[in-house]
Each structure stands twice: as structure tokens, then as C-alpha cells.
Amino acid sequence: MWVNQAACANFAASRLTAFFEYVAEIQPLRGWRYNPTLSTDIDAYVSPLFDVVSVKQREALYRNPLNSIHLSVPRGEAPAAEALRLLREWEASGVLRQDELPGIYAYYQYFRLPGSAREFCRKGFMCHIRAYDWSEEVVLRHENTLPAAVNDRAELLACTQFQSSATHGLYRDDEFELERYLDEAMTTPLLETDEDYQGARDVLAVIQDAAVIRRFQQVLAQRQVILADGHHRYEGSLAYRQARTLAANGTATGHEPWNYHLMYLTNSAADDLRILPTHRLLLELPGELDETEFLRRLEPYFTIRAIEDVTDLPEIIAGKPWAFGLYLDEQAYKIRLRPEVHSQLDWDTTEAVKNLDLTVLHYFVLEKVLGLVGPDVQRAWPGVAYVRNFSECLQRVDRGEARAALIVNEVTMAEVESVCHSGAVMPPKSTFFYPKTIGGFLFSSIADEEAGNSLLEFFQH
């Protein structure tokens, strides 16, 4: 094993410089997939991402000895070692097989949203991307990570050198040049789910035409990539790359397999890219604060209007900057920041972040009203829960499981891009890109044995 948890904290000291400014280098890969017999029932083997799978889902998936969760969220006293043992067993027995030719894998997700008859289709592709350090400003982040979760992902990757799910990255191409190649590939799909755990239908195809792959590389070479989902897995890959670079002691070429990371890339200009809101549930109110005093403390900062029907809150605040729904003590309110007080927001961050609804909420409600001073204190406070389902928020307040619900609008793609390009990060749980990618649809190896393949090397020159 090349890395352990204690060493991870020191990895960030190592930096590699991008070959060119803002060049996103992508590479095709020889993907690993479930064998053709198992693939006919692929729904039985895919799994949610490690950080969104619920305990109930997890236990159900573990009961299938061949489900991909055994590689992505392994169990046992030494989970990473157990994942490696199982991976070798699956390779030897033919549960997983590697494609003979390298390719870029088209990945479409068909889904619907509540209250809408439209079927969306998020189009994208999976490939290897160089694991760029944040300082290189090629891959941009919009949220902070938790060191323990990064270390966990780094240790698993170091042990298995295998990636069971792609992170989600965004590039912008207003011309939609690559979509025609993806549509063509989708006429002959490799895999298709009936319906995954979130209700989406997932379809996988492959592009192995060298000229087309080159064009994908050329388009991405002119782009920055915004990391939408998978910050912990990406940083795990980055930590592993840095460890291997240090261990190579100056002999690394930069093209070793461990330089790369499995990513699902989608076009941020597409209308089918959806970001859902994540509401804030106040499980408690600090100190002796009661509902009446809470409302009184809000008044210097917000206009407050009682709403007769709580189910109208999302529609009432929709599209209105710095507007929120509040539900407490069986009463609904629309609250909206008084514009003249916004200048009081004095956190050390960029204007792009200060203008976000969620920054306003965290500063004026959590800090000014509840007394939780600063983002670090707020992140550590156990009195807030992040809930995506509007009805669940109301029910938990009515059942007495929470004191209040704060209903928010979704973050826009333009806001995500603005924040990322400003070099700052958003408040925690700002974005929920929907649907999530699934694990087990396509696996990627970055083992040393992947080096020396002349077909792959063709794309590195």
C-alpha cells in the first residue's frame, strides 16, 4: 500500500504544474464492466455513491455478494484490504471483465422531476482526467471537504488502484459540439438500467473511434472543469497521485496511470442539468430562544409575512433573491432580506459568494439571529440538518423532531460558475446536482499494469 491515513495530511505539500494554463487533459480508458451475463440484470449490481447511500439502502445492497457497494464502501476490520481481495476474486472468476479497446464512455441519465411531465436527459461521458491540484486552476471546486472522508477515499484507492464510480465534472460548450458524437454512440448502448435507486434510467455506450476521441481531447483542452459532485473522491485521487509522485523521486513521466481520475463530464450549457435545493432544518434553537423571540430577532434583517398555506412556500419564494420560507410552530412565513442590510455581511469571501441566497441565510439567520459566529462554528453545530425533500421538512417540524424549517431556492448554474471562477467556495450543502451518477456502471483501473498499452499511449502525444 502506498499511503495511509496519517500520511495523507502531508500530501498537499506536493504540487505539479499543468502543461498549459487551463488545459483539461482527458484520456480514454479500457473500462472494466460486469460480464455479459450479469450485465443483463445490471440493476442488481449498481449502487448509490458512498456519501449518499442510506443505512437502509446499504444493508440491502450488501446482501448481494456481487453488488458494487462491496468495492465502493467495503466492510470489515480492514475495509480497503477486503475490497482488494474481493476485486482480485472478481477479476479471476470473470465477474468483471476489461474492454479490449480504450474508449470514451457516453453516459445518459433519463429522469423526471416532481410536478413536471417532461422527461429530462442529462448527457455526458466518462473518461480519465488528470488529477490536477486545485492551485493549477484547471479543475475548480465549489465546496470544502472533510479530511477524514478524503483519507478514507485515498486509502481505498491506494490499496485497490480501482475506481468504482465517476465524480461529476462540468465543462461549458455553448456550441454543443460533442453531443452529436454522444447521440450517435447511444444508438448501440452497452448497458441500461430499468430504474436506479433515485428513479432515473441510466444508459452506457462507448466511443472507440480514434479521430472522435482526439476531438473530445481538443475540446476539453480549451476548458476548465468545475467539480459538481465527488470532491472527496477527487481529493483522494489527488492525494494518491501526489504520494506516487513523491515516491518516484523525480523519475515520473506524468503519464503513469496513477496520474488520472475517473470523471463523468457534462455540458453546463445544457438545460437538462438540474440543481435541486437543499433546505435547512433547525433541530434546535440555541440557548433559551423560543419561537417568538426567534421571529423578533429576524425583524431587523428581514421583512416577514405570514402565509396561510405552508405548501405555497416554494412557489412564493421562487425566483426571488434573498427570499426564504420559514415554518415553525405550525405557521408559515415568507422572509426576505432587507436590501439595505446586505452590506453588513462581512465574511472574508468574494462578492459572488456574498450574493448567494445561502450565504445570506447562514450569515443573517445562523450568525446574527442564532449567534453561531462564522462558517467553522456553523459547520460544527449539530443543530442543523440538510434536507432535500420539502414535505419531509414540514413533517419533521410537525412531529416535534425540529423547531423550524428554512425553505430555500435552488442555486443556479450561473451562480456555481461565478463562485468557482472567483476562487471561493459556497456554504455547505449548497448544491444537489440531480440525478447522481451510480456506482458499478463502469469501473476504472489506474494500476501500474495499465501502463505500456500502445493504444492508450497513442492518445498521450
Describe this structure in words.
It contains 17 helices and 21 strands. The radius of gyration is 23 Å and the shape is globular. With 461 residues, it is an alpha+beta fold. The strands form five sheets. Strands 1, 4, 5, 6, 8, 9, 10, 11 and 12 form a nine-stranded mixed β-sheet that branches. The longest helix is centred in the middle third of the chain and has 18 residues, at 231-248. The protein has two domains: 5-274 and 435-458, no CATH class; 278-409, Conserved hypothetical protein from pyrococcus furiosus pfu- 392566-001, domain 2. The chain has helices at 5-8, 36-39, 55-62, 69-72, 79-93, 147-160, 179-185, 210-220, 231-248, 291-298, 313-317, 351-354, 357-369, 375-380, 390-398, 413-422, 454-458; strands at 26-27, 32-34, 96-98, 104-111, 120-130, 139-140, 162-163, 167-171, 191-192, 201-207, 225-229, 260-267, 274-276, 279-282, 302-307, 323-328, 331-337, 384-387, 404-407, 432-434, 444-445.
| Number of continuous helical runs | 17
User: What is the strand tally?
Assistant: 21
Residue windows where pLDDT falls under 50 for at least 5 positions: 1-20
As a percent range, the share of strand residues is: 15-25%
- How much is the radius of gyration in Å? 23 Å
In quaternary terms, these chains amount to single chain
- Sheet bearing the most strands, described? 9 strands, mixed
Q: Decide which structural class fits the backbone.
A: alpha+beta
Distance between the termini: 30 Å
Whole-number count of domains: 2
**Mean pLDDT score:** 90
Q: Percent of residues in helical segments?
A: 25-40%
Overall 3D shape: globular
